[in-house]
From TrEMBL:
SUPFAM superfamilies per record: EF-hand (SSF47473)
Species name: Lanius ludovicianus (Loggerhead shrike)
Region named Disordered: 207-233
Protein name listed in UniProt: EPS15 factor
GO biological process, one term: endocytosis
GO MF: cadherin binding; calcium ion binding
Superkingdom field: Eukaryota
One Pfam family recorded for the sequence: EH
PANTHER family in the cross-refs: EH DOMAIN, EPIDERMAL GROWTH FACTOR RECEPTOR SUBSTRATE 15
Residue intervals of the EF-hand domain: 27-62, 139-174
PROSITE patterns: EF_HAND_1, EF_HAND_2, EH
Length: 233
């Protein structure tokens, strides 16, 4: 991968070239910025080969749901994936749909238990049922609103089992002081939803039969009852 980015064979990678390449990892700019800061130890805006390897390891950690920190560098992770056909690590047909889901299996079991305890109807939870759980985290209302929007992937105002797991994952990240991304990273999209997102036009964001205003009203008004909702969960 290093020669791909260091095409001039200078033994170093400029920030601009590295940024273009690292964006192909599908990670958010926020995460990539953190990776760059950790790899570019002396802040000179250039990575040597060793520092570039550190950046690649951190990309792999982030894609596998691990912490982006120097402590994660020695953890066993598969090689990083980049959506670029010339990459030796990308065989044809490998896309974000093959990324391992960031929600780990043992966490999913816990999230599923909470989901079932909220009495889903036809495998779905309404915003009113999810809201007390979100509010119980004591996170700021604007953060919870973003968690809801990111996790309601098919925009139906309800969360299924996988979407609920995404919401819980984001809440726990926020509680660990990890920033909630502005858009859902590829690794966080549940495998069950990836086909939905990969086909252009397959997912109307707003049902054609309703106006924009009505579809927004299906989102739970997280802010309205922030202080008054009895937190039973």
């Amino acid at each position: 991968l290093f020669p791909q980015v260091d095409s001039a064979n200078a033994g170093r990678v400029l920030a601009s070239d590295a940024a273009v390449f690292l964006k192909k990892s599908g990670l958010t700019d926020l995460v990539l910025g953190k990776i760059w800061d950790l790899a570019d130890t002396d802040g000179k805006g250039i990575l040597n080969k060793q520092e570039f390897f550190v950046a690649l390891r951190l990309v792999a950690c982030a894609q596998n749901g691990l912490d982006v920190s120097l402590n994660s560098l020695n953890l066993p992770v598969p090689p990083p994936r980049f959506t670029d056909t010339s990459s030796p690590l990308l065989l044809s047909g490998t896309a974000s749909s093959d990324l391992p889901w960031a929600v780990k299996l043992e966490d999913k079991v816990k999230y599923d238990a909470i989901f079932d305890s909220l009495n889903p109807v036809n495998g779905l939870l309404s915003g009113d049922k999810v809201k007390p759980v979100l509010l119980n985290s004591k996170l700021p209302v604007d953060i919870l609103g973003r968690v809801w929007e990111l996790s309601d992937i098919d925009r139906d105002g309800m969360l299924d089992r996988d979407e609920f797991a995404v919401a819980m994952f984001l809440v726990y990240c926020a509680l660990e002081k990890e920033p909630v991304p502005m858009s859902l990273p590829a690794a966080l999209v549940p495998p069950s939803k990836r086909k939905l997102l990969s086909v252009p036009g397959a997912m109307p964001l707003i049902p054609s039969s309703t106006s924009t205003k009505e579809s927004h009203q299906s989102l739970p008004p997280v802010g309205v009852l922030a202080a008054k909702t009895p937190l039973t969960q």
